[in-house]
Amino acid sequence: MSSLQATSLRIVSRFVLAHGLLFLALSAVAQSIGSRIWQMQNGLPQNTVQALAQTPDGYLWIGTTGGLVRFDGFEFRSFGHTNTLALTEDSILQLYVTRDGALWIGTEGGGLVRYSEGLFQRYGEREGLSNGFVRAIFEDSRSQLWIGTDRGLFILHRSRFERVDDRSGVPSINVYSITESPQDRILIGCTDAANTVGLLALDASHHGTWHLPLHVGGDRRAWLMHRSRDGSLWIGAGRNLWHWPARYTGDLQAREGIVRPLASTAISNKDPDGPLTVTALQEDSEGGLWLGTSNDGVFRVVAHSITHFDAPNVLPDNNVLSLLLDSRGGLWVGTANGLARLSKNAGRVVMAAHNTPVNVKTVYQDSDGAVWVTTTGDQLMQVQGNVLAPAALPGIPRRLGVRTIFEDREHRKWVGTVGQGVFVLSAGRVHRYPELDLVRAFCEAPDGSMWVGMDSGLSQIGRSNHLNAGSGLLSDSVRALLFDWTGDLWVGTDGGVVRIHDGRIMPLGVFEALREQKVYAIIQDKEGVMWFGSRGSGLWSFHGGDLRHYSSAQGLLSDNILGIVEGKEDRLWISSSEGIFSVRRKDLLQNEGDVSRIPIRVFGVSEGINASQMNASVQPSIWRAASGAIWFASGNGAVRLQPRDVTEPAPFPVVIDHLESEGKELPIHPRAILSRDQQNFEIHYAAINLSSPERVRFRYRLDGFDHAWIDAGDRRTAFYTNVPPGEYRFRVIAYDSDQPALAATTEMAITRAPAWYQTRWFILACILFLIVIVLLLYRQRVERIHRQFAAVLEERGRLARELHDTVIQGCVGVSTLLEAAASTQESSPAVSHQVLARARYQIHETIEEARRSVWNLRHQDFTHNDLVVSLLELTEHMSHDALVKLTCECESKRVVVDERSHHEILQIAREAASNALQHAHASMVTLHLSANERSIALSVADDGCGFVPDTGDNMHYGLIGMEERAHRIGGTLTTTSTPGEGTCVSVLVPLPGKPSAMSARSKGVREE
Question: Can you tell me the distance from the alpha carbon of 574 to that of 569, in angstroms, rounded to the nearest whole number?
């Protein structure tokens, strides 16, 4: 074994000397690499990140000592024993994604957990997994799942694990890593009961042999294996990294020259002679090998160069526990103190030494390529490499407060100061203009003269030409200057923009819209379009006499536009109070007011620009360098952005994460079901964009509830209140702010169950109930109308009967008396006077009877309700009036009935007697009354001419009236008549109960 180690060292030495492996801190590769760091304050449950994996849906899964975390690039979501039943242990040791997209989670004592389609399933002792410390998970080429634990190797058959070691010649082992050789042999990095470190190779029958018993010492948990694209193996064993070429992987023979350790002396920068422990391996698409170490950060080995990344420049900690290359090529580094993502950046914030932030006010590149900056402390600095260093100009004192710098066409440098005037450096000589102070901008005219914008107005050097608010400027505070193609000078002030033509200030015209606006930036693009950036009112364009306005309402990042430059590919690059963004000229010029038609590209931490506060109090605050790079003045330093390194947006998936109602999370597969009480809910959605989540924008709509799409911006939650029961479909669209056409969409069905009073059956029952109620009310109303109509008819009939039986009969009687008086006037005047007196009395009685009939009153003499008395009185009056003998025969001395029966029987007797006297010409009329306990019988018989009874429609009204009266009191009327033999009208009225028990108010009779 010692000879093998010696050989290894000789190989390493020759390798280092032959290829000249040198450590290059912050090399060209490092310069283009930027990082973003996440720790507990950013959402991680714990800073110790032990495992990393990415599922096919794009989510990044993070295993920490404090739980499992899912990350979409924007928001963390934690799973642990407090909110996930399957996770009984929060410390996650291993994460692995199988071909079916399932995530397998190895815990530190809590067994194995599978996650798929939103569901967690735990595997423990009941499923055959006898040890809960899962350190290795691997799916082989036959889709068999292997699990390595602290005590045992297991393979999954269907839904149960079977132990592989400690049987059939395979010793009991502690497993730390598993992989597969090109010859489909399973390789296990492990230790046996004797703590011997080695490789176990298993064939299809699970028979194994020991190979390479390396005595490397150190932490056994550092064992790891990685299979390269070319089939070779990288094996981390303690403090050595072994490389096993592909052509020897199959036989696994440890011969000299086959297994080569890459010693730590080749890549350690802290201690060239010290050891290096490799803890994680990843291979990128360019063939580079990324090495995570226990104390020295991350190394990238590619070709003959090695690049080092460590804390605090790039990583949060040098103790690297896990590595992962995501689908976009970004490297995720899990450390003992947080998570970092390393990626190539198009931008960089250049700060002072030791990464000290500098509040940069202006940035300018001269003809020699030097980049100059001024700071808010009026200090002049220069970009040297990747830092800002204090600088000085010859002939200008260092203590001089510099505000801005400019170089004219003759390569003279103009320096604007604070309180010291303007200095001009030319051919080693310095000229000063002390009268010019508080300079904000320089601009060279086509004739070579220099214009200076200051806090106090605008001056032309050498011409004694000074303009301010009193001489036509909109404000004394000049912010921006530009000469256009025609030679006109455009001046941006705190009160708007003015144009100077041939030394004369032109009328505002359409620029009246910019009055009172602070114009900070003015440029003219390659097609002659003028662009104006204002602080507070957004961006303006002027071309062909048309002034157009663009604001954040139309999609711009901010309305505070601080600087504008034109870049390649028809783009405007803009600094604003909210950060840096770019926009295509054609998208602006073709915009008709629709927000979605101004796609912008936002640049921030994803491009390595960890600065959002741009500056622009003095110009130039933005500058396009000769190399194409664009420089911005920011509160953190000078921002350098290289447009050619900007990566194009890539498609990203959008998912509906979960649905909550009343603080409770609800399942959403296959559809979301809301109860009748859950009318308020919120839907959480996400776009899986790990590289640039800040550029993602969303629109959503709840079909059946929303009338239009809702623009949510970067908000990832939709809130709904008072949603009625029904079937809905929630749709969400995610798109890149730079390319709205690059959109992804997803949807979810939502059903909200109705309350019992909102169900269809209840509503139908209510409708039927209402219909029944309406019908009943209608029927009741119809019946009431019928009753009212019947009452009216009855009243009309009653009045007709009363009139017939009273007024008409009385009139007939009076008529008879008048005829008798007229016939006896000459023969017997005394009799005539007597008859006339009787007629007058009869008239008064008829009138009183008619009045009583109309008011439905009874005769005052009928209050006694005695039929015998009433019939005797009736026969007496009628005999006296008609001069015909009427007799009344009563079998009882007294018959008392109720008032209604009394009235009707009496009226029937009157009508029958009157008919006998008037129509039958009877000489004698007899009324006969009899009564017993059951009924009252009354008959009226005469000896008149008689008639033939008619029961049809021709029945006499008097007979009809008598029948109606008999019917009203429940009696029966019978008319018997024979021509020439007289007529008999009989009425039989049944009596309820016994007459002896009835009072005068009851419906009955009392006979005495």
Answer: 15
**C-alpha to C-alpha distance for 143 and 528, rounded to whole angstroms:** 64
Q: How far is CA 354 from CA 350, 386, 776, 936, in A?
A: 11, 11, 92, 132
Please list, in sequence order, all residues whose beta carbon lies within 8 angstroms of the beta carbon of residue 214, skipping any fewer than 6 positions away: 197, 198, 237, 238, 240, 242
Instruction: For residue 244, count CB atoms less than 10 angstroms from its CB and return exposed for 0-12, middle for 13-18, buried for 19 or more.
Output: buried
pLDDT of residue 315: 94
Report the distance separating Cα 837 and Cα 831, nearest Å. 10
Contacts of 744 (CB under 8 A, 6+ apart): 651, 652, 653, 654, 687, 733, 734, 735
Query: What three-state secondary structure class fits 108?
Result: strand
CA gap 977, 942 in Å, rounded: 10
pLDDT over 70, % of the chain? 85
Cis peptide bond N-terminal to 670, omega within 30: yes
d(CA 145, CA 117): 19
Give pLDDT tens digits for 619-676: 999 999 988 999 999 999 999 998 888 877 778 889 998 899 988 888 888 889 998 8
Q: Which helix (H) or strand (E) holds 882?
A: helix 867-882
| Rounded distance between C-alpha atoms, residue 156 and residue 133, angstroms | 16
Q: What is the Cα–Cα distance from 14 to 21, expressed in whole angstroms?
A: 11
Identity at 402, one-letter amino acid code: V
Q: Cα dist. 627→1, 371, 538, 643, 839 in Å?
A: 57, 12, 29, 10, 141
Go through the chain and tell me how many residues it has.
1008
d(CA 697, CA 736): 6
Q: Does a cis peptide bond (omega within 30 degrees of 0) precede residue 620?
A: yes
Structure tokens, 82: 């407090």
Q: Which 3 state secondary structure label does DSSP give 924?
A: strand
Radius of gyration, CA atoms only, the chain: 57
| Residue-range domains of the chain with CATH | 1-31+247-322+337-345 (no CATH), 350-645 (2.130.10.10), 654-754 (2.60.40.10), 863-1008 (3.30.565.10)
Confidence (pTM): 0.67
Residue that has been written with the tokens 């799916």 in this structure: 139
